[in-house]
Amino acid sequence: GGAVLRRLREARDDLLSSGFWAASAGAVRAPLSGSAEPPVRCVCYGLGRFSGCPAARYQLAFLLLLLEELGVPPGRCSLFDPAFSAQEAAVLGQLGLRLLPENEEGKHSVGGSATLFYMVHCGKALYNNLLWRNWAKGELSKMVIVGNSFRGIEERLLSRTLERDYSYIAKVLKGTEEVALPAHPRYLDTFNDTSVHWFPLQKLKELSPEVWDFVEEPTYQECEDLEIIRKEDGAE
């Protein structure tokens, strides 16, 4: 664990000395200068094997800087990735972070608390499930998501595929504010296509009433490239 923690500190120093963190801080603070409440807790999905993967290590170092910046105590940040090893779970514990007890498939309720979701390079179904679970104006307006650009998802998918497979992403687009993290030559693969998203209450109120009527749980029957590890699959 000691070697992993040392490499994590090096990644943190790197993010600071390269200027990437300073350049990203504006995007990270953007929701707060808008209407979003400061998050009081954080949920992180899909971080990956940070003991061996440099990109995952940089993403974890960025998360720790993010918690500091926003004043969220490590003990109020919960993580889940079925890939975590016992050693990685122990390292996260040493950092004061918590592990979620089970695979929620992204279906985590904000439960009325302003929550930051840190989901860098997660599958589209995970974002869609998260939106479904919190499908109400009051709940969505309490969420900030750091993850794959929703605009990018919209641009890359045929609109009929987006509406069929990821209907909650499709429906929330017009109620979303999004600021991209800056491009940096050293972290192109680590944070490419990553944006900070939030859902101002005023924008959500402007969506048509029927947007809120359909609240069926997503199933992904026709989805060929489902980038999500389901509960019943276990850690494949």
UniProtKB/TrEMBL annotation:
The protein's matches in InterPro entries, at most eight in alphabetical order, are given as: SRR1-like, SRR1L
GO CC, one annotated term: nucleus
Residues annotated as transmembrane: none
Query: Entry's Pfam families?
Result: SRR1
Segments forming domain SRR1-like: 35-198
**Family indicated by similarity:** Belongs to the SRR1 family.
Q: What is this protein called?
A: SRR1L protein
Q: Which organism is it from?
A: Nyctiprogne leucopyga
